[in-house]
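Hi V.,

You were right to ask for the full record rather than a summary. Here it is.
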Amino acid sequence: MRISDVAAEAGVTVKAVRYYESQGLLKPRRESNGYRAYDEDDVVVVREVKALLSLGLTAEQTYPFIECLRAGNERADVCPASLTAYRTRIAEVDQRIAELSDLKARLTDLLTDAESWRTNQA
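Predicted structure:
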């Protein structure tokens, strides 16, 4: 299978497939003419990486999931390292929520203060 076929089947661009390969997430075979040869397993990997990136994981954080697939598991998220990666991402999201909540509270305080000042000036 050619790179354009993998990209089309996985719903990504050829550039994305090349990026995943440069990150070590894909390891296509080389044909005698030097062309990369992909198979259905590569399509599964690309789909999995795409899904994980959409959840905010970095390419590096997807390694445990891909290794889980390569170990012969039907799902990429059943291995202990994958579960740890999920927990890490959840902790990052929780931290971001806390930061945004703090920001909202500060902005609300500033708005309330500004509205009060404006009312007192009228």
